[in-house]
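re: ur question from yesterday

yeah so i grabbed the chain u mentioned. its 252 aa long if i counted rite. heres the sequnce exactly as i have it in my notes:
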Amino acid sequence: MSGTETRSGTADNHVFDRTTDVSPSDAPAEQSTAGIVHDLGNLIQVASSALNRVARDPHVSRAPALDPVIASARTALQQAAALVRETVGRAAASHRAREHVSVGACLAEVENLVRSAWETNVRLEVRVGRDLPAAKCDPLGLQNAVLNLVFNARDAMPNGGLISIRAAAVVQDPGTVVELRIEDSGIGMTRETVLRAFDPFFTTKGTGLGGVGLPMVKHFAERHGGRVDIESAFGSGTTVILRLPAMQAPQD
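ran it thru and got these structure tokens back, copy pasting raw so excuse formatting
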């Protein structure tokens, strides 16, 4: 993704590593609770957008093309219920072994959830590297993290635009990581905003559930031994880089 590489090398971009600020054990209880609500809110947005599109169509019963939209809404509500179950399960078994996730399959689910429900002025492009290894994390947590980042990207583009997701294996010391780059063509962030982007409840949205999504993504990444960074310049869009430990063997 040459455009991203060029941006990260410019002097006006602000790149910050927030992995050493706060350990997962220091996250306040209210942040965790709010994070659950925030993730549920994201999924409900998918269902609401889909149903709104159906409601605006006067010939719903004669529009088979809307079937995928309705299916997306149903899937979103099912995912909301799954999120609650997963949260309860984590509380009961906090030390369970890490799972191995097919990142390509996860991104395909995210793409199906949002593509048919969003307005046509927002475009989503997903590219997965060949022989991408599995990531060491829980599947639902990864899906919610990506949804958080995708919804943030959409909100940063009030007039529409392109959101791209790139997934690739990157060799680092001490081992290979799975790197996801979520890039938007939106308004970007100032240096001051980037510095506070991972602070719990900090938001530039004014009202609603803002200020929870990015801290939850950071918490998810660190809980699984990963990290999350932001590259942004005001007026030039934003790229969020999520890195997670990779399994040694490639996915089938």
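noticed a couple things. The two ends are 24 Å apart (CA to CA). also Confidence is low (pLDDT under 50) at residues 1-27.
anyway ttyl
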